[in-house]
Write a structure and sequence with these properties.
Layout (H helix, E strand, L loop, with lengths): L4 H16 L23 H10 L16 H13 L10 H7 L3 E2 L6 E3 L7 E3 L15 E7 L10 H18 L2 E5 L8 E6 L15 E5 L6 E5 L3 E3 L10 E3 H13 L26 H11 L7 H10 L15 H14 L1
Helix pairs in contact: 1-9, 5-6
Length: 341
Amino acid sequence: MHLPLSISVIFFSFLLYPILVFPATWHHFSKLANLKKGTRVTGIGNLKHYFHRFGYLPPSPANFSDDFDTELESAILSYQRNLGLPVTGKLDRDTIDVIMSPRCGHDDNTHRFVSETRRFAYFAGRPRWVEAKKPMKAMTLTYAFDKNHLINYITEKEIKSVFKRAFKRWSIVIPVNFTEVENYYTAEIKIGFFKGDHGDGEPFDGVLGVLGHAFSPENGRLHLDGDETWAVDFDTEKSKVAVDLESVVTHEIGHVLGLAHSKVKDAIMYPSLRARSRKVDLRIDDVEGVQALYGSNPSFDYGSLLESEKSSSCGAGGCRGVFGLSIWWLWIVTSLFIHLL
């Protein structure tokens, strides 16, 4: 099949766009799609490392062979349950799509789900900030930035504005206030952008892999990957691999407060976030989870949240793609188009 060059370029660019925003870190897992137990394919061992990193395989597995064995199937089943995916035990399209998505660095299995009807979760032991142990008592947490570990293409003023808005979202729903201070070492919440191995046992992995991580109460460290292309405005930042800073910051503050990952796809505490997507509004699942730890802010209007959630039409990770198709499906179409050219 031959198309006029101008049409080919336009059509190819249109379909290629979703591929360009795929994370390089885990994009190679695309070749494992539709595999099931009993198969042996090069690359399955790397997938086992992925599941080990995020809490689905034992700390000291005997090996990371390229066999799709019972242990891997069990890990996939648990992953699918935890992330609200169809529970098939296979590397179906939806599962691979989420595996390849950029995400938070926290593992998903160091927590327990509250009940079958509530899908928010906590860290083991359900830790929270000490002052909050008195129900309905307002408290203040201080935060500060590591001035030696910021990024230079977004102004400090813009970064601070992003954090102020993100902290405000949480303080609206719980009786906790957040105040910026200058002294990084005495602040309760310590914020910085770091690259690779930065000394906390949780190294970052480059562009569009792990985006950030934060530790449970009362540790207070909140770290973002300095190798990402962070954005505060997608109209200004045109990079195809840009990540919305406010979305990730809002998620990581949830960890600082004691929330673990949610299985609700449109919740702030869902672990993955696609490049060039924005998700900053707390959902009912986030609010119920954090209020169970700290109580409700007396001025919080729960009815407005319910109304907002009713009017929302997109799920976690943003809308699924052009014409409602998943990015994985567009990748297949593009591959076929390239072959035909």
